[in-house]
Amino acid sequence: QAQDQTVEERLATLEAKLAEVEPKASGLEGFSFNTYARSGLLLNGDLQSAPGGPYLTPAGSVGGAVGRLGNEPDTYLEAILNYKQVAENGTKSHYRLMIADSTTSSNDWTAGDGALNVRQAYVEFSNLASFSGIFDDAAIWAGKRFDRDLNFDIHWLDSDIVFLGGLGAGVYDVTFSDSLKSNFSLYGRSFLEFPSDIQDQDITADTDNLILTANNYFGNVQWLINGMKAQENDLRVVGGVTEAAETGLHTMLAYHGDSFFGISDGSFKAAIIHGTGLGAETKNIGADGDLHEDAVSTRVAVYGTTYLSETWRFAPAILAETSEDRYIKGDEYQWLTFNARVAQELSANFEMQYEASWQTMDLTTLGYQSRNSVDGDYSRFTVAPTFKPQVGGFWNRPEIRVFASYSTWDDELETYASGDALGVDSDFESSQWTFGTQMEIWF
Amino acid sequence: QAQDQTVEERLATLEAKLAEVEPKASGLEGFSFNTYARSGLLLNGDLQSAPGGPYLTPAGSVGGAVGRLGNEPDTYLEAILNYKQVAENGTKSHYRLMIADSTTSSNDWTAGDGALNVRQAYVEFSNLASFSGIFDDAAIWAGKRFDRDLNFDIHWLDSDIVFLGGLGAGVYDVTFSDSLKSNFSLYGRSFLEFPSDIQDQDITADTDNLILTANNYFGNVQWLINGMKAQENDLRVVGGVTEAAETGLHTMLAYHGDSFFGISDGSFKAAIIHGTGLGAETKNIGADGDLHEDAVSTRVAVYGTTYLSETWRFAPAILAETSEDRYIKGDEYQWLTFNARVAQELSANFEMQYEASWQTMDLTTLGYQSRNSVDGDYSRFTVAPTFKPQVGGFWNRPEIRVFASYSTWDDELETYASGDALGVDSDFESSQWTFGTQMEIWF
Amino acid sequence: QAQDQTVEERLATLEAKLAEVEPKASGLEGFSFNTYARSGLLLNGDLQSAPGGPYLTPAGSVGGAVGRLGNEPDTYLEAILNYKQVAENGTKSHYRLMIADSTTSSNDWTAGDGALNVRQAYVEFSNLASFSGIFDDAAIWAGKRFDRDLNFDIHWLDSDIVFLGGLGAGVYDVTFSDSLKSNFSLYGRSFLEFPSDIQDQDITADTDNLILTANNYFGNVQWLINGMKAQENDLRVVGGVTEAAETGLHTMLAYHGDSFFGISDGSFKAAIIHGTGLGAETKNIGADGDLHEDAVSTRVAVYGTTYLSETWRFAPAILAETSEDRYIKGDEYQWLTFNARVAQELSANFEMQYEASWQTMDLTTLGYQSRNSVDGDYSRFTVAPTFKPQVGGFWNRPEIRVFASYSTWDDELETYASGDALGVDSDFESSQWTFGTQMEIWF
Question: In degrees to the nearest 10, what's the CA dihedral of A320, A323, A327, A331?
């Protein structure tokens, strides 16, 4: 029947049909797929698995990450299934489901040791037809999610600067003026099966930590405030006493820079975070129920990215925290990490990557979780020949790497905890090389 | 080379290519994605998780659902991955995989308490090139599935009227005449690890419940017949004796109305269901192996939907059941639920929803599963301000809700079972408000 | 604005847009979905689940598969999510995630007995812009995967000829000349929690088996060499002694024929495999850590496919192995399977399938895993009326089958192991019919 139509009619039909097909093929409407994944082998000189991960040092147990390059023994992945719709009135909705898995097994059947689970399942509405005024650009959401804005990270340390996730509802982009935009939310998190009887470790209780958030943007400046309450968390037994926090405050002042500290092209982010009580877990907001009612923590996070020349990239970072009365009245945790990733771009598909990390820590645990106090330093240096589809920039993925990594640490750090990666009962010794291969991808 | 082609050739090429692309973009061919999901926080006045769910009353243990609005504490989701193909001879095939998860944890990592599993994996062929006569419009299927037609529900109670799921094969739409269409199927279900020794609870047996189904449609009238047999289920120990049913019969007569009970525009469905032996679980056909050989149940289900005015929607429902000799010779279970959901549409994106439920029950358990006999009533009323991309109709989703819910019940109901949501050992008390937020979506 | 454009401009725009949309709709770019799945009911004459699976005989415990038609009691599925990208420089990348599940439960909720897990997560780059010379056509990969080329199977036995999977990195299609192409890879596999103390079974150790592979193609001839090492696997206690292999060699010579053994149109594959030490598991390369340091195995695998007439298809197969000192010094395992699948194509959607299997085995276990030595034969014959969207060829799927299967075996085989499908404590007896229905699909 096409023959009976004029060229004009056939063109108009094609244009109309293609306009329907196009947003579905591009993921603007209907289904789309996103991913973060890494999978690698990390071996010691005996060709056996070596322990690793950015949180392998004693300071790692309280958030002190070190560099991740050549330091990841796991397969971790997030499969994100999106479904986007546009209503006739123009309102957009976005459903997101994230399934994630984590394992250190190299086998291709991990039903026994995998961890497949649902990390996000939420809907978000934007462009709401009937919203106006300060809500004109607002988006609303409910369900289980990672906060849209509160999970920006120092990629090279595998550490978010702050991370807020859980189950709740909220509103984004309430626009009070050209220079002030705010997000408000309520998140709940579950504190499950904590000991609640000093005499009997097997008696446990559950509660919920509810987190109210105001996250405000004044141009490049971000001011985040969180208040939280976990009713009856004061029944929790930590270190033999019931002094756990029931409430918490958490605040962050951050600057999102659009140059490399004003020195050169690039970017930087700097943040200072302060929390008390349940808010004293400065990164994973509201996720640690063991915190003492007098806990106080302050964390500083800074990183930047820039090109040193046409082919050399440079990304330095600092992460440091001091915290007191954290789990047991009188304890003290102090640690600081310097990290720098450097890359030399050598061809369309190949670059050399280098990463150096130095961490110093002074942890006075007072016996929390049978951990011993330690004071010392840890260093790691990694070389990683890296293949990628297109070299250029800090965020291009996927990458396929091979790597060699040398790490060394003060003997005292080995006494921190039994079962520890660096511990005396581990095969992993100071001043050792490790080797391996890894892929990393996101899209 | 396009330049060498005539406009006619280029148009024809475009039309042909677009005809191939279009069904893939729309999901008629290739991959498509469907979902049901809800995720919400349900809190009591102390800001701690409250128990909930449509089956939280004593009657709920035998299928007596109450209203779900403001009464769901979980994240439940179904991710449905479809793949459709059309053979050269025109035969269509549809592969469907459903992965589902359920948890009440609010956390974003639930590897320990999630329940990710595969609920469906089947293929269905339709438009079969070589089928003719009464099979001309027939579809055949095999695998693990929810029956295509036997899972219609009273949405507001989260209760199917009947549900048939399991592993088997069948044929749909055998068309005997304009006024008679039938589906036939064989479903198997597994009865796993039931106690089979009166002396020793740890000795268990397994068997299969096989269900033969004829599901017939005479215009708006549906007549369903199921016969089932679970060989050696009579070895099962229930209440200290071995009198469990080995066979069962189940039948349903239903009417699918295309008005609101003939009174106004809208819809209604009414069904009466009767079952004996293994068929005495009237909803989840063949899913309960504890039923007594003399068990008899009769259930009535009715609901309708209509607009009371331009902006007020109304959906009342009744669900009631009587059953005898259900698990233990001489027991009696009787319950009835009235439910009504009302909504007032207020703007393009906002409506007020209200739901009221009243349930009365008289359960004589004779000690089955250590449950006590109870006789009493339960009521719940919920107000839920609701946002949605496009207000209008009963089935538009997604929705984002906040809600407050008041529930009250007779004290006697608290003695039914230990660990019960309403039980004496629960924090949840009669005449209490609960609060929360939730998203719900399907597509 | 389309009206202001010339026909030429509108055609050019349409062609450009369609060129972007087309590869996304066809799966050449962006997301695509692949699957293998089967789901079936397998019943004995009492209408209860019968045991089954190609590895149900004693020989099956050491890889001796028998025919799968009418012999599969499970729901097994692989959901494969792909994401393909093409960089501006032309380099292609392919991310693949495979989630799999396996269960014998017929129920639609298998959170307790399912096995959902991640089997593959890797990236592969091809068409690398900066690769040249022998690497011009090469592809590189890293992550967890099934090897691209080392998982070709005898479909009717559900047995790969060789299978290599695990976590590593490698390069495909290094092209030395027109007649020589090679793949090289390093795979790691985890040997988890093996007993490492002769006195105390609860003391366990872990290690990694690292497999270096060279897989070479000279036209139709394939020569595969694998060397492997699992440091400290000699600590493993097998049969009360510590003589497990720490290293292994594995090699395969195969021919991929493009006719039915030169006799008629069709295909055939023939392979001879030899392995020692950890390489003595001839199929699942490097996957069995219990192998003795002196273990030696040799396997032969042959199959072909051809049409006997216009409508009769024929696919015979032989799989046989001999192995010595396999787990315990002095043990001997010998088995041979003949299998043939025959199909008669009867209409556009229907064919009759037949399968016969005969297996002979002589297993001298020396008490390994409390297994007894057995010597005897097993036979199975299956008839399966089969529906499919389009009849024709050996590889057309999906299929919906019903089947009846008769199997018989020597009584001696029943003494092999307790808990065995054919064992004395099983309801499954020799000379028995089994019945069922199943779907199978891949795309």
Answer: 110
d(CA C359, CA C380): 9
- d(CA A434, CA A428) in angstroms, rounded, equals 9
Distance CA B437, CA B386 (A): 10
Q: Going by CATH, does the domain composed of A27-442 fall within 2.40.170.10?
A: yes
Q: What tens digit of pLDDT does each residue of C28-85 get?
A: 999 999 999 999 999 999 999 999 999 999 999 999 999 999 999 999 999 999 999 9
Q: Is the Cβ–Cβ distance between A266 and A247 less than 8 Å? A: no
Instruction: DSSP for A401-417, please give it.
Output: EEEEEEEEE-GGGGGS-
Residue B309's nearest CA partner among B357, B272, B262, B343 is: B343
Fold topology of C29-39+54-374 = Maltoporin; Chain A (2.40.170)
CB atoms within 10 A of CB C431: 9
Please give the ipTM for the structure prediction: 0.96
- Rounded-to-integer distance, Cα B21 and Cα B16, Å: 9
Contact criterion met (CB < 8 Å) for B83 and C389 = no
Tokens at C208, concatenated: 């990694």
Residue recorded with tokens 């994100």: A80
Residue C229 has its nearest CB partner, among A47, A109, A116, at A47
pLDDT at C298 over 90: yes
E strand or H helix at B17: helix B7-26
Chain B contacts of C49, Cβ < 8 Å?
188, 190, 206-208
A332-345 and A312-324 beta bridge pairing:
antiparallel
> Which residue in chain C is spatially nearest to B164 when comparing CA positions?
C108
The β-bridge partners of C39 are C75, C439
* Closest of B290, B292, B299 to residue B277, by C-alpha: B292
> What is the Cβ-side half-sphere exposure of residue C81, based on CA atoms within 13 angstroms?
22
Would you state the pLDDT for residue B343?
98
**Cβ–Cβ of C400/B146 closer than 8 Å?**
no
Distances (CA, A) of A322 to A293, A299, B183, C75: 16, 7, 69, 53
Domain ranges of chain B: 2-442
Which residues, listed in sequence order, are joined to residue C37 by a DSSP beta bridge? C77, C441
Burial grade of A201 (CB within 10 A; 0-12, 13-18, 19 or more): exposed
Asked if residue A398 has a cis previous peptide bond (ω within 30° of 0), the answer is yes
Residue among C298, C291, C151 nearest C229 (CA): C291
CATH class, domain B2-442, is: mainly beta
Q: Report phi then psi at B344, rounded to 5.
A: -115, 115
At residue A312, what are phi and psi to the nearest 5 degrees? -105, 125
Interchain contact, B231 vs C400, CB within 8 Å: no
DSSP, residue by residue, C155-224: GGGTEESSB-EEEEEEEEEEEEETTEEEEEEEEEEEEEEEE--SS-TT-EEEEEEEEEEEEEEETTEEEE
Contact residues on chain C for B168, CB-CB shorter than 8 A: 41, 106, 437
What type of residue sits at position A254? A
C 245-264 near B (Cβ less than 8 A): none
Residue A202: CB partners within 8 Å, gap ≥ 6?
A: none
Query: Smallest Cβ distance to C7: which of A11, A22, A437?
Result: A11
Q: What is the pLDDT of residues C315-355, one digit of tens each?
A: 999 999 999 999 999 999 999 999 999 999 999 999 999 99
Backbone dihedral angles phi then psi of residue B276, each to the nearest 5 degrees: -135, 155
Please enumerate in sequence order all residues whose Cβ is within 8 A of that of C142, keeping only pairs 6 or more positions apart, or say none: A39, A40, A400, A401, A437, A438, A439, C122, C123, C168, C169, C170
Nearest residue of chain C to residue A114 (CA atoms): C117
For B226-271, what is the HEC assignment?
EEEECCCHHHCCECCECCECCEEEEEEEEEEECCECCCECCEEEEE
Percentages (nearest 5) of helix, strand, coil residues in chain C? 10, 55, 35
Using a CB–CB cutoff of 8 Å, tell me whether A235 touches chain B. no
